[in-house]
Model the fold of this input.
Amino acid sequence: MGPDIAPGPAVPWRKVLWERQPFPDNYVDERFLEELRRNEGIRQYRYWAVVKEAVLVGQQLSCVAIFITLWLYMEQGLLSPEALLWTSLIVGLLGYGLHNALRPQLGSDRKPRTHLADLQSAAIFLSFTFGFSPVLKTLTESVSTDTVYAMSALMLLAHLVSFPYAHPSPTGSLSLNAALFASVCLASRLPGALHTFAMLSCALLMFALWPCLLQSIRDHAPGPSAWLCVGVCLGGVGGLGSRWPGGAVLLALALVSVILLCPLLLVKLQRHKDNIQGPWDEAEIHEDLCKVPY
Amino acid sequence: MVLKVFFPQCCNRADSGLLVGRWLPGRDTAVVLAVIHYPFIPSTVKQYLQQIQGQSQVPVEVLGSWSMPSEKQEGLDSFLRDLSTIFPQTRWLQVSREMGQTGFSCQLLQLPPEKEEEEEDRVIFVHYDQRKVMLSQLHPLESPALPGCEEPSELRQMFWTVAHSEPLFLKDKYDEGPLKLSHWQSEGREASILVELMKLASTPLCLLLAWLLAAWSWVTSTRLLNLSPLRFLSSKLSSCVQLSYRTAHMKTVTSPHTATSHTHFMRKANVLVSLLLDVSLGLLFISWLYREERLARLASALLPAADRVSRELEDLLQWLMGAPAGLKMNRALDQVLGRFFLYHIHLWISYLRLLAPFLEVILWYGGLSAALGLTFALSLLSDMLALLTFHIYCFYVYGARLYCMKLYGLCSLWRLFRGRKWNVLRQRVDSCCYDLDQLFIGTLLFTILLFLLPTTALYYLVFTMLRLMVVALQGVLHLSVDLINSFPLFALSLRVFTPYRLAEGVKFRVLSDEPGTALHLLMEMNALGLGEVVQTYRTPTYSCYPPDSWGALLRKLFVGELVYPWKHKTTKTD
Done:
């Protein structure tokens, strides 16, 4: 104990390292825990708000169910490809009109796509799908049906897992590709080339374009979009129930648990959240780097 | 202080006289080269040594005296001691032999004599065979560095001294002259008259051959023969490649400059011997081939064999077009590929029919090429094999290209599938935001390629196996050609019959180690190992550079790159 280490009451401890002080390096005084903060920046979830967001997940689940329903109808010959094509065309045109009607009010700073570009994209979709549909038809001929089903199920699951639920508008590459892969696999088991074409167009509509439309509806009118999602969910359960009641029950259970039970669990468990922050945390740079003048 | 004296065995029983040799610079080592007998005139000795020095670049000097006991000479010691004053040296060796003893006794006189006899000198006598040391070449061969740039080892210096003092040994025992020397005696020159005659004859022969070769290389370098299709063709035909190698070899042999360095000489001799061997083997082959109508039988057997191969291939394709080995392949693609290849075989068979009447003539003239050497016949055989199995090569190339493209497409589309792309600038995989239509088409193609891959892969596998069989055959032919081209037969026979010529270090054996006298060692050569001989002296040809390793070959096969029998890494471009 040298004289310079003995804590003199006259010298108060200061939390600086650039000054020689009569304290050991790891010294802290009793004010240390005053800086402890708990659950900083927490958001208190309200039940119905969470349910409104969770409906989106259920909606995507139902979309997959609707697609499978349509495929079942096609495979059993209950739905003609022409009917599906005409329906898809009408629904697509309606959706495009709605999307265009909603777009100007967004006022986004990005340059909007022209109608010509949309037309070009549509032409590419249709021509490629139509041209490749005979190839796709014979693609999985020699592969066993179980393999195809397993692959499709896996891919649809991958689609659901990797779907960007927070912002569905630029669809994630992996989710869209997985869904398209699954739909190609399923469509190749259908009896004719036109069936394949119709099924792929339907898949494009459902997995690529519908999330875009839904995003713009949500941006424009959050209230009705939730009800729209509920409608999609009901449609999915009803559709699946018409061909496969057991599946419909399972889907309904899954939807209820996702939409109602999981938010409840989240809100209930939020009381137990205990995050502590304090001076021991590593430093955070709060300044936005984009605003630094240079 | 330990003094080493290298003493030639042939001087063991020489009459008394002067020791002539050299002190190795910077070491306590003396190399005795010869003994000059009494009587001599000192000025003549000095003059002779200067003359030898001028001829051989070896600083030969008088080392000391040598006394051999005999009846006539008594009381010689004082005379020998006086000799040192006649030949002023800093060190003076006095070596003498006693009557009943095997060992020598040695005294070293330091001049000026203030340090004389003060410390006990140990002397080691190393007896060496002068002829063997003179003829041998110490390995590993040193690079021709500047003398004095780096201090060579003692042994190397000793070898150098003995090998370069050849003019000293030219003086014959029977020569009448003022000096009598004792050293290694050659067997006389009379026996080598034939060699001398051949040497005389070889010069005009070499000149003639060199002129012919110059004419030949002028013909090959004319513009007509260097047009692009001909050049490409000749670089692919192994007989043309062999021709160019042989021309280079002949140029080496017939160059009018005499070989100065050991390596150069060995290269020339090796090439000459392998050339002679090659030609004699080729003549043997011709004498076998052109007898008993073997050629006609061969020609008549060749076509049915090729036909048979084609039919087997057809069967194989039919099998592949069904469900080979129970594999389920894409039926449509399978049919397309199978029909394509069947048509190819059909084309091939008609080509063979066209070729059939000329086959025997072609074989007859081709067989004549064996007169140039067996290697030519083998190269020609390899070329004919390549031409007769051209359809297999075509199948292989189609299959490999298709497979390679598919694999490449799948790789990049798999990246698109995960929303990544290959960044060329940074050489890494980056994430990327694709458009909707890009994603759609990419996924469509990915699915198609993925489901069609097994069919293509199977075709590729089968045709690769066929190709590998042909490549293995051609590889064996090329290897044997290369063996004949590059095998150092001369060096190997030198090693077998006169092992001391190619030495790899020395070993010592103790002759006598009596207390009180000097230690006597016998120096013997270690012969160079056979593998080392082959490695050091083989003529460099293209296959000295190793072809792809097995791992690289497998990787290439997996990726679908084309595999060739022998990649020429050092193609002569101009």
Observations:
- The two ends of chain A are 52 Å apart (CA to CA).
- The first strand of chain A starts at residue 37 and ends at 38.
